[in-house]
User: Fold this.
Amino acid sequence: MPAGERSWWGWGNTAEALTAEESDALVARTAAVLPGHDFTDHGPPRPSDLDVPPSRLDPPAALAALCGDDVADRLSHARGKAFRDVVRNLLGRAEHVPDLVARPRSEQDVVDLLDWCSSSGTPVIPYGGGSSVVGGVEPRFEGPAVSMDLAGLDAVLEVDTVSRAARIQAGIFGPALEDRLRPLGLTLRHFPQSFAHSTLGGWLATRAGGHFATLATHIDDLTESMRVVTPAGISESRRLPGSGAGPSPDRMFLGSEGTLGVITEAWMRLQDRPVWQVTASITFESQEDAIAATRAIAQSGLHPSNCRLLDPAEAFINAGASVGGGLLLVGFESADHPVDIWLDRALELAAGHGGVVKTRRSKDSARPDGDSASTWRSSFLRMPYQRDALARRSLIVETFETACTWEGFEEFHHTITSAARAAIDEVCGGAGVVTCRFTHVYPDGPAPYYGIYAAGRWGSTVGQRDEIKAAVSEAIAGHGGTITHHHAVGRDHRPWYDRQRPDPFAAALTAAKTALDPAGILNPGVLIR
Amino acid sequence: MPAGERSWWGWGNTAEALTAEESDALVARTAAVLPGHDFTDHGPPRPSDLDVPPSRLDPPAALAALCGDDVADRLSHARGKAFRDVVRNLLGRAEHVPDLVARPRSEQDVVDLLDWCSSSGTPVIPYGGGSSVVGGVEPRFEGPAVSMDLAGLDAVLEVDTVSRAARIQAGIFGPALEDRLRPLGLTLRHFPQSFAHSTLGGWLATRAGGHFATLATHIDDLTESMRVVTPAGISESRRLPGSGAGPSPDRMFLGSEGTLGVITEAWMRLQDRPVWQVTASITFESQEDAIAATRAIAQSGLHPSNCRLLDPAEAFINAGASVGGGLLLVGFESADHPVDIWLDRALELAAGHGGVVKTRRSKDSARPDGDSASTWRSSFLRMPYQRDALARRSLIVETFETACTWEGFEEFHHTITSAARAAIDEVCGGAGVVTCRFTHVYPDGPAPYYGIYAAGRWGSTVGQRDEIKAAVSEAIAGHGGTITHHHAVGRDHRPWYDRQRPDPFAAALTAAKTALDPAGILNPGVLIR
Assistant:
């Protein structure tokens, strides 16, 4: 678990939430964009004031010590940390609270808990850090449910420094993992925005994307082998740097979101901690040029560690920069060699498309804890806390992320932003902003990440958000995008996932689910049934 | 189809087989290593002299025009091009000949053929270039069979030059594909040893590995989306540069070896044709140093396009070099920038482990057709033809490939080479050589590729080879390796694949197979049933 007290209603830890001064400043900035909005602060209720029904489950005696029905604990496992989760918490809506929180201390505990749930037909939701923003951990169904919190399985069991890999239990949180690897000069180098509040098992189950823009940033590619407890037995793949022996077993469990089994441990590929780091920021007058430059870098084979293109709204709100066409943040890092020449070439490519270098910076020491000092990176990690401060003040703050081809981006982007703006017009009377950045870039296309800031009405913002989200999701699903690039499917993306997924694959996955989870207890409603 | 007449019994095209002079020279070189061996040449029989039973299948009238039962055609589809296939051809053993060869001209033909096979319960084997070296295309079972040759689906349907991707039919052969892409300055840059004699669909179905040592070389990573005809319907994934929407549909079909459906087309990621290329060869006195240097380069983040370590026997036989510890071939290439500085750093790393640079070469023009002028690369593409010349002369020439961690390599390698040598002692009275090279290197481990040259007895070399192969496969399976890194599973690797594959995954894959192929007609005996 990360240090500090976890917020039961909002993102992360209470100690890291915005201070009163920060909130005031944020409100002032936002009010400039959304004049006339009612910024009244609606703080969270006390958990003890909520009307939580008593647990309907009675675990067998042998498992009783692993299970708890404390109301505050159940409440904190009732949902993830999406905007709609946070607002429902603020409103004191206590629906879909799991009946028990089970905390296995060993893999055998996981086996025993699944055996009990299978034989009793009790739904069980594997729970890592609970930072899902897609309804992935919420028992959004009738009847009882167990939330299985894996945080007790948090050991680094073995480190192979020669092959640079470690066998790691799935319940470990990001900071604890990096703390264990740092003395060895190694890092998993996987830094999703939720890094401090999510676990290895959660990253694997949801195909998490890290902070870096290219190459080894997706958890899929960092995975050497996995161990998964399914109701039909334990699946363990071999430690292999590469294999062509049939369809990849790991790729079936990666992204299975708790529906096929409980990931208990994995051998993960590690990297040497970076020593050389260079970054630059580049501005563009036209959006077209900014995109062309970003594409050129993505297709150059230079493999920048950072290659984030912020549109003018995003650049203004989160990086404090006024730009006409876009702000491109490019960075390179290495544990082996200086990378200035890499950056030189990337800047050449940008200049060929009218890019003007605004800042360029080198660092000769390793990045502390994967964090960085840049305004934007700090802002990046603070964004969810800012979202919570605005959610308390009736703002609708939501994100949508997807991926598409470079060729299709312009039309796709126009369709999505038009749908978002039309929905904001419809639902919020037009008071809102839509921002866009590329979080990851591939040779064949970008992963655009949209932010929405809109003026809602207190008590209605969940419904307003749902309408906007549905409109945007329709646009994404109808125009060839993916309903999620790295946030996962969960329950919130399910209708559009079903349209995106090829029908024969749905049939195959359903059959696989039935083989591994014949009682259908694992995370019902997600992906499959 | 590649130019020239296809050999019915041996590798590739008859025009490319060894000349009499080349055969004589090869025999002389080999005789120096294996004195006393009987090098009598046993040429192939005429197909018309073989005792091939008549076809047992009568296709429906609507499909008759797509199907043929010509004996020579059926014979040439009866097996792949493994050593044991070639020798059985030389011996005139005509077992397991498919009853019909079906040649669909459109995707609808594929649908119709599968419908007929499903309703009649007739096994069907999807057939690309037929270059399988693992028994992947052989109807090794009782009862009739259809070989579905996809070579008629050979069009490049669309090219997206902005996103650098193309929609390509699965039956296209390597050279034809590159011919289509070359005028656009693009390349798939996928060059397996079988490049000229295998198809896109075959590469996808078997998770083929290309020539390059790191990064984008496996067909899996070059795949943007796939279209697959299954008996349960057509599965088409979206063109997405990245996605986190559930387990990847493509990753289920990649490596499915014709058991889940027939791949008809795919959107493939392309690259600009390389302009800058630099290569070097480095020698080492000790094997330990050679491995340490190779690992340092693999873990450096330099991403060489080539990083092949040949052991002394491999270096002598295929590169004509006498080295004490190993010969490392390193290369870099780019379409965007000069890569000398990359090579400089790789050579520094090698020098740190005692490596001595023997040659260094730059090329300023694009590689013609993915081929290169180096001795070793030419030798690489000629190896299967040399194998056939030796097979005719009672030699056992076989390869085994796998992957393991760096930490485990030394013991693993010792175990495998010991098993191979013991088997050669047992089966061939000790007359044989075992070679090793790394074909691909990963940050967490190498992919070692073993060659065996042993003196057999004419008429017994298949059985002798099978005994050696079984001994080596036992060693691989028993010591944590993969039974195949890029040759696929087929029928020859099946017993060890079953041990390697996690049981729950086997259950899931079997259930998926039943959902997609309820009649169980697709490539029976491979992977699943």
Residues 365-373 of chain A have pLDDT under 50 and may be disordered. Residues 129 and 198 of chain A are 4 Å apart (CA to CA). Chain A touches chain B through 97 residues (CB under 8 Å). The first helix of chain A runs from residue 20 to 33.
